[in-house]
Amino acid sequence: MILTGAEISAIVGTYLWPFIRITAMVGAMPVFSSNFIPVRIRLVIALAMTIVVVPIIPPAPAVDAISIPGALIVFQQIVIGIVSGFIFHLVINAFIIGGQVIAMQMGLGFATMVDPVNGAQAPVLSMFFLLMVTLFFILLDGHLALVGLIAKSFHSLPISVDGLIRDNYWQLVAWASEMFAGAVLVALPAVTSLLLVNMSLGVMGRAAPQLNIFAVGFSITITAGFYVILVSLPVNLLQFENLSASAFQVVKDILRVN
Question: How far, in Å, CA of 137 to CA of 14, rounded?
């Protein structure tokens, strides 16, 4: 069996372009983008997804990969994949930032550990929220829904030189503000409660100057902070669900998926 150069280029293009988009999405989405997952495992996962997706998507254009149009197509596929997964990182980062704010208010800002996702030092409370929302993301089948969106995107955004438009990038930047709004909503119950606790300790210090507020207040603040976190867990999970639903809608709008 002898294959011509055009046939080889068509076969490579059939799997290459979808593989690039899916690989970029896997490398940017939560869970799979963590540093504790080896790169080879991510490539195997992306390759398996590509083999499953290729038979159900429109045929890829017969474009030479080593050419200017081929380079533009590669760029568009990378951007589409990264944008699809990056939005959900903003959702998780909202809880990481909220955990940092709560830790500073509780006096636990010094208790840090290595973030397995970003590879940087972060407060222990941020790691708690990170693990919680990551497990909840998997529990809600968020990773499967995202894979389904990227598969549908090959119909709404076929493989071509054209891809995302300028309005899509502005939409992504505008939605990034939701990360900070979400972080405020996550930290607001604990911050408000701890503010009341600190005000009470201040009143106690003025009423009883002989009382060592610094020794007593530290343990009271930490205990009150953990209690508020425990009580507000259902609200935080609901907040994560709302942010995830909003993120899915933004991804649908950017990928033009119905």
Answer: 32
Burial class (CB in 10 A: 0-12, 13-18, 19+), 165: exposed
CA distance 257 to 38: 31
| pTM listed for this prediction | 0.81
DSSP letter assigned to residue 113: E
Joined tokens for residue 118: 């970003």
Cα separation values, 226 from 52, 94, 123, Å? 46, 19, 14
Q: How many domains does the chain have?
A: 1
Tokens of 36: 């504790």
Between CA 166 and CA 235 the distance in angstroms is: 36
DSSP per-residue codes, 3-45 = --HHHHHHHHHHHHHHHHHHHHHHHHSTTTTSTTS-HHHHHHH
Q: Give the tens place of pLDDT for each residue, 169-220.
A: 888 888 888 788 888 888 888 888 888 888 887 777 777 776 676 777 777 8
pLDDT of residue 6: 62
pLDDT at 2: 60
Q: Please check whether residue 50 is in contact with residue 109, taking contact to mean a CB–CB distance below 8 angstroms.
A: no
Sign of the alpha-carbon dihedral angle for 229, 233, 239, 240:
positive
Q: Tell me which residue range forms the domain holding 144.
A: 5-255
Task: Give per-residue pLDDT as tens, 48-85.
Answer: 888 888 888 887 777 776 778 778 888 888 888 888 88
The rounded distance, in Å, linking the Cα atoms of 140 and 241 is 9
